[in-house]
Amino acid sequence: MKSILFVLLIFVSISKASAQTRQEQNPKPLILIDTLFTYNESMILHPSKFVSISTIEPKKAVQLYGSDAKFGVIRIQTLPDIHFARLSTILDKYEIEDRYRTLNVCIDKAIVLQPDKILADLDEIKNVEVISINNSATSDGRQSYINIVTM
Q1: What is the pLDDT of residue 135?
Q2: Taking the domains of the chain in order of start, what are their residue ranges?
């Protein structure tokens, strides 16, 4: 996703600001899009819809937003009239059956570790599909997951 590359550039400045960040294996700054929180791998938003981006260093971010912001915060202001949705709304829109809703979730086949943090501009989603693959490690030889396909 194009938004990931753009936000990763901002992340570099935050990661340099904190010795704690360098010691962690997988530091993730909290992302605040308008008034909604997410993480980089859980965000579906094209950079052309950004109005401004700013960062908050980890120490100040924790004071403002708590321990979830221990790696800093990236604040993104967007254009008006973007239709943001969380995972349940996305699954409803694409009529994903209840029996599949506990599956792992991917965005463009990349696993999302915290699917409850998914925040998407609905206009950036092309399709949502349930994919089954052969996997000898499972009892039935198949593994399934939900894949959100972006534009």
Answers
A1: 67
A2: 2-78, 84-150
